[in-house]
Every structure is written in structure tokens, then in C-alpha cells.
Design brief:
Layout: H1 11-25, H2 29-33, H3 42-56, H4 61-65, E1 67-70, E2 73-76, H5 89-99, E3 106-110, H6 116-124, E4 129-134, H7 137-149, E5 155-159, E6 173-176, H8 183-186, H9 205-216, E7 223-227, H10 233-243, E8 248-253, E9 259-265
Helix pairs in contact: 1-3, 5-6, 9-10
């Protein structure tokens, strides 16, 4: 997982500075460049320079503006949720492919955070039922806001510790971008919530719990998609083999390219 607040220089830094100026003025890029000879008001200027200082201090641009684009959609984010990363779009792409095999798929997004995965799947699969699950009621409030903004009517919101509150209801596909950063490394991230990062000593405590819960369900899902971190491929495969023997798992690489996603078909 890349730290969202890592500072950059050169053209990328210029893009961030421009984004902040657009944020405080409320102008589009074209609108901003058509008004370069105009002076912004004092309040906007003060807000802008305050945000620049926070940006220089490492605070992620996405928290400063409150927005991020994911899979072509705009999402509101806050320091209560992990900032969605581009590599998580790989999970969405694979889930969309798998969902083609179902007439009305039921998809659970476990640890939904901002709702980037749940809302995107909902938008692209209007005939599906998407269950957005998070342990935090405050996080689910943000998920609801993003779902409402995009007009999603096929999402259910469930406050739950992983699968505990889902009972034995049918689920066809489980998507999970859970905390997978080792505890020591997670503590070095000053801005994103530890609850969304810290996966225990080796980063895999919560993934283990989820796979164990999946194995204990009387009606197991057809598919389990798990995002994981650098160097965790073998350990994740071992966890899946232990709890879900006989299942078939394919590991997918992101654009970096690094192993990023396990896609398991349960037999």
C-alpha cells in the first residue's frame, strides 16, 4: 500500500498546488486558467495558503480537498477512511468480470470505507445487490453519502465486524480490501486511520479472520477477492489453502507490476 501523503516534486507537485487553488476558488481547470489575471478574495487566499502549508507537512491532497477519483467516479473522502488507491481498481475489474456469470449477483464489499468499490460495482451492475459492510457506523455514513451522490439504489449498508452480522444470507462474490499493513509500518502513517491500515504483526491478522469466517459459512460464496500487500503472496495463498482446501486461486498483478489480488473460486 502506497502512503497517500508522500510528498512529490516537479510537475506532480504543480498539479497538487493547482488542485488546491481550484478547490478554494470552486473553479474548473478551464475556469481557473481563464481568470489568471484576477485576484482571489482574502478568505480564499488565506484558506489556500493554509492548505499549502498542510500539504507541505505531508497531509494527503485528497483529505485537503475532500475528494478523489476512483474508476472514473468522484468520491468524498475524510480522515476517517483510507484513501482509495488506483491498484484497487483491479479488484473492481475482476469482480465485474465474474459478475457476468450471474443474473442478479449478490456482492459483499467487506471493509467498504468510502464505498469506492461498493458504489462502483453498484453503478456498473444495476441488477445486482451490493452489501457495503464496515465495522464503523461513522464510516458507513460516508459510504451512504457517496452512494446517494451517485444515485445507487441497490446498496445495503451493514455495520459488522467482517461477516458476523450477515448471518447465512446468500453472497455470490466477496470483495475485501482489508487492513494488510504490518503494525510497525502502519504506525508510520500519520494521517490515514490506523483501523484501516493495521493488519497486525505480519499484516494478515484480519485477512486470516475473514477467510476463516468464509470457511465457516454453511452457504459459502462462489468467489473471494482479497487485496494484499507486497511480499504477502505466499502467506495469503497459505491462508486460503488452509481454510478453503480444494478452492482455486489465481494471483493478479497490478500495473506496477506487483502481486496485488487473490481471486479464489470456492468449490
Amino acid at each position: 500500500m502506497r502512503e497517500a501523503g508522500a510528498r512529490v516534486s516537479g510537475p506532480a507537485a504543480a498539479i497538487e498546488v493547482e488542485a488546491l487553488l481550484r478547490h478554494v476558488t470552486g473553479l474548473s481547470r478551464a475556469g481557473l486558467y481563464s481568470r489568471l489575471d484576477q485576484i482571489i478574495d482574502t478568505a480564499a487566499a488565506e484558506e489556500y495558503f493554509d492548505l499549502i502549508e498542510r500539504l507541505k507537512n505531508g497531509e494527503p491532497l485528497q483529505y485537503l480537498t475532500g475528494h478523489i477519483e476512483f474508476y472514473g467516479l468522484d468520491f468524498t473522502v475524510s480522515p476517517d477512511v483510507l484513501i482509495p488507491r488506483p491498484e484497487t481498481e483491479l479488484m473492481v475489474e475482476r469482480a465485474l468480470d465474474i459478475a457476468k456469470g450471474y443474473s442478479s449477483p449478490v456482492i459483499a464489499d467487506i471493509g467498504c470505507g468510502s464505498g469506492a468499490v461498493a458504489v462502483t460495482l453498484s453503478k456498473h451492475l444495476p441488477g445486482s445487490t451490493v452489501i457495503a459492510v464496515d465495522i464503523s457506523s461513522g464510516v458507513l455514513d460516508l459510504t451512504r453519502r457517496n452512494a446517494a451522490f451517485h444515485g445507487c439504489s441497490n446498496i445495503e449498508f451493514v455495520e459488522s465486524d467482517l461477516l458476523e452480522s450477515l448471518g447465512d444470507r446468500r453472497i455470490d462474490i466477496i470483495c475485501a480490501n482489508l487492513p494488510y499493513v504490518p503494525a510497525v509500518e502502519a504506525q508510520g502513517n500519520r494521517f490515514e486511520p490506523q483501523l484501516a491500515l493495521d493488519g497486525g504483526p505480519d499484516g494478515l491478522d484480519i485477512i486470516r479472520r475473514l477467510v476463516s469466517q468464509v470457511a465457516g459459512r454453511p452457504n459459502k460464496p462462489g468467489w473471494l477477492l482479497l487485496e494484499f500487500g507486497t511480499g504477502q503472496t505466499t502467506a495469503v495463498q497459505t491462508i486460503i489453502d488452509k481454510y478453503l482446501p480444494g478452492s482455486r486461486t489465481v494471483i493478479h498483478r497490478d500495473l506496477i507490476p506487483l502481486d496485488r489480488l487473490s481471486v479464489t473460486e470456492l468449490i
